[in-house]
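Its record is retained below.
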Amino acid sequence: MLINHLRPALAFCTLVLVQVLPLLTQAQPNPVVVPFAGGLSEPRDIASAGDARLFVAERSGTIRILDARGNLLPQPFVDLSTQVGSSGFEQGLLGLVFHPDYANNGYAYVNYTNTSGDTRVDRLTRDAVDPNRLDPTTRVNIFSVPQPFSNHNAGDLNFGPDGYLYIGLGDGGDAGDPFGNGQDSTAFLGKILRLDVDGAFPYTIPAGNPYAGHPTVPGEIWAFGVRNPWRAGFDRLTGNYWFADVGQDAREEVNREPAGFAGGANYGWACREGSLLFDAGECQPGAVYDEPIFDYPHDFATGGLSITGGFVYRGQGHAGLYGQYIFCDFLSGNFWATDADDPGLSTTMLPLNVGGVVSFGENASGELFLAIWSEDSIYRLAEPCGNGTTPTGLDAQVLGSGSASLYWDPIPGAQGYRVTGRRAGGAGSKTLTVLSNTATVNILQPSTAYAWTVQARCQSGGTLTQVSDTAFFSTPAARLHQAATALEPVRQANGWQFEAAGPGTWTLFELSGRVLGQGRASAGTVHVAVSDQGLGPVLLSWQPQSGVPQQALLMR
């Protein structure tokens, strides 16, 4: 996966935060990492489905869900441990990605080594009833390739802006590419592939692939000459493709392909290792090798031994990091930023040192997260409190017709927060001051949409941060029975169902108070069908023929 050999140094890769440069002025990069979620087991990848959740792939084969507040849901998204082989450190469940149209088709793709040690890319489909589950019975194989050794399995999966699936495959392992896979035009190993998974099952070869229709080179191949591409990502603004490649003896490298690139690049392994010659016997006559945009030496002071690729930051919280490709070294803990918006792609070392970062991930808003294997935890990239910092992670949970729980990501160094709320589209506002990154508001009106923002108050002179993006939520209509108890319905493909102890009447309301549906039912399972499937929460009320009414606020 990440390293050439299992070095003894692994035992010492615990999380360390070290300020290695003087404090930078505001608007210059000055990131820190802060805990976001724990309770995981050997996290290997972080993915977003385009909503508030984060999905964490664990090496053993389980995928876990984190909510917007970093809470670990008790139920796994899916458990593939019986299919996944993870006896070697670089084996296991290695990659997860969601289809660009996941909201409609429910497709998720995983990359793992099976119990024979071979690479498999499978597709699973979201459960028809529970949106927090993949249905394991829907698992189908998309692509497979035998692996000669247990290491260099790569495993990242990415959908490009072209809608195609990109798969990074290492050279097959051991050391020095003993089978010459990197430069072997007939082998899948040591390559990056590009597949069209929306054509005929299991995939078709995109007509624009550089070797589509070639008599001897597999049409799936997009690029040659990679050793162990460990973590890749597309710039969500420009569409450029970035990936890191783990080195052998001397160099670790970063590569970039611009949006619209025609493919066919050869990154040189095992003729070259980064910008250096590695094995002249592997150099192909007349070949043109693509140089990395940045490589660093095997030196703990200025480089490291095992690169972990990241993403181009396009979030809101770090003004100084915007447009920077963030990556690090797994063993040395050094971090770098390459200016993706600079034609010269200048790279600088960041004032941050974090050991054991096995993967980066983006949430739906473009904020960055890190999987720390030695901590079994997910950390969040944060910016210390200052006038260039912007609060992120705004989340609201409506508690009833008159109250809501508000949450945002904590900002290091903040002395408190100022929360400002108003009726959406209305004049005037109300402000409250809190010390922590949560607030409960109990002065709301029923059937009303609210807009709210947050600022943090910093240490130096009470300076306020930038104002967060505006978040919106709506309170439900007030019901006649304010003493209602909780109803616990289960989501169905076309609505919800719950168990009733006796006969009664159910009503489904929009938060504005508009009735979406109503019906009578006897004891047993009650099905509530919904014809209007719009967006946002709804209130389900159950009035039994005798007894206390029950209610539940549901997300569609």
In short: The two ends are 39 Å apart (CA to CA). The chain has three domains: 8-382, 395-474, 485-555.
